[in-house]
Amino acid sequence: MTMILNKDKALKIADYLLQIKAVKLQPNDPFTWASGWKSPIYCDNRKTLSYPKIRTAIRQTFAEQIAEKYSNIDVIAGVATGGIAIGALVAEEMGLPFIYIRSSAKGHGLGNQVEGAYEAGQRVVVIEDLISTGGSSLQAIEALKEADMEVLGLGAIFTYGFDKAVSNFSEANCDFFTLSDYDHLIEQAKNTNYVSESDVDSLVEWKANPQIWKQ
Questions:
Q1: Per CATH, domain 7-208 is 3.40.50.2020
Q2: Are 178 and 16 in contact (CB under 8 A)?
Q3: Pairing with 74, which of 92, 121, 130, 210 sits 20 to 30 Å away (CA)?
């Protein structure tokens, strides 16, 4: 299941995401995702990189939680493209080597999918910016396994908390955690009057049935 290791920090990260509009909530003017789903939320965590205080908080929180969960880590890996910059920052914070995983093998040169210096058997923690269904994250993890690396787990800034993602990670036998998630985001949005009580009801309904919400 999705793991939030620290509730207070999850609420703080959620607050940061709302402050800089890395996450936007518009239950009355929903977004349309590529899948065709109507959604009250849009997430672009790349914005966190533009705010030194916030990217520092994210970097440090990742490092703390990775150290708490895992031991004998050899490498930090970022998932292209959203996980590359924050992954490199986390690796720097922890004094560890960094590699990244392309969405597919490069079509020229060496044809690499995993970029950087690494060795078979090394223990790696993967960094992602966002988990939706987990599909792209798990493709990256599979590429690392094919490179004979031992994947300890994956950490992401944020997840929508879909059951499908939890199921996909479980089936892949891959541990994961996130700094914040949809439930904590809604709690913080309510605490700060970012949304109204009626908005909260609509937001909760979306997570329960995103495919049919306001269709």
A1: yes
A2: no
A3: 130
